[in-house]
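During the reporting period the student researcher (J.K.) took over the structure-prediction task from the postdoctoral fellow and processed the backlog of single-chain submissions. One of the processed entries is reproduced below for the supervisory committee.
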Amino acid sequence: MPSHSTLSRADARRLVLGAQGFARQSERMAPGAEPLRSARSLTSCIGALGLLQIDSVNVFERSHYLPLFARRGPYDRTVLDRATVDAGARHVEYWAHEAAFIPRAMLPLFRWKMDALRARDHEAGRTPFVEDRAPLMRELLAVLAANGPMAASEIEHESNVRHGPWWGWSDVKRSLEFLFRWGDVVSAGRRGFERVYALPDHVLPPGYLDAAPERADGIRSLVEHAVRASGVGTVADLADYFRLRTDDTKRALLDLQSAGSVVPVAVEGWSQPAWMHVDARIPRRISASAILSPFDPVVWFRPRAERLWDFRYRIEIYTPAPKRVYGYYVLPVLQDEHIVGRVDLKSDRQRRALLVRAAWREPDAPFDADRLAETLRMAARWQGLDTIEVSDHGTAAAELAAAVTRVERRAG
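J.K. obtained the following structure tokens:
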């Protein structure tokens, strides 16, 4: 595609969804399809995205499981666990967007960020905790050196008492998190949902982080990955993908343009110029039916979701119940190239029921209640749930409840 070309919003939506892995999603979403058990398929999807954001909320399903379900359909979650949270996993954690699983090969690209965070946290007077707990941090490094990978709760220390803010973290946990930010310790999987910490040489080849690229080169590699994974985006959109500074992102884009890797484009209705990769291709159509995590790259940068779909989306978990508009854990509904609605979901594991506590359709969107009911039925089975219960709350509740009844009747 030549530089300075113009994309319609429809083309931009298809480009984004194709880059995000939805162009061939329907092949895996047939009713009755066996759960995917191919580690290669799942890890290739993570590699294309670059990361899976982690979040502790488990009201429906933890967020890092959901992007792969949206793109690949039902899959064996133990396969993803082996690739992410088990000891010796092929992926590690870092602050790549928020806390996220990333392919191990990408970790050196963040070495410059580790160094920058260390310098910032050690500025005189900026972080008193770091100054006061320096002896504790040295002690924790010695404990890990002696004992190998450990979770914070496994470390016996007088300071390992939960208190105060920071989710009630102990001084030991907070100290480990600072060491994790700086790359002095790295993740070695999780036990339950608790991060396990290790010295780099416990889980990485010797000197792995020391051979990292220079700051500008690391940022340029991250920006190019963001362009490929995003399909098309403004400087702000692309900077947000790996939480980079916009000035660094713009500089990297100009370098990549000079190298012939990216091209600037204009998108219909966008006030800011955008960028796409020279290898990007716009799918002729997107045939998708998915529910998206609030932390899915398609919607995690809310201004971009508004520009692409006129979809105003805010997570309301931390909003007091009387002030919530749509619900507690609300997931956007993707059908083909449109975001057509949102559903507030909860997995009631005791009663083996998927609860749809609210269902909403977007104004003027081509909402298909039967397709959503099929997607929810697939999600329920994937979660090991037997039934779907739809409340009467929301503009799409009645038609979705009727559609769920039809789908369950057809399924027998």
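The committee noted the following: The longest helix spans residues 215-230.
J.K. will present the remaining backlog at the next meeting.
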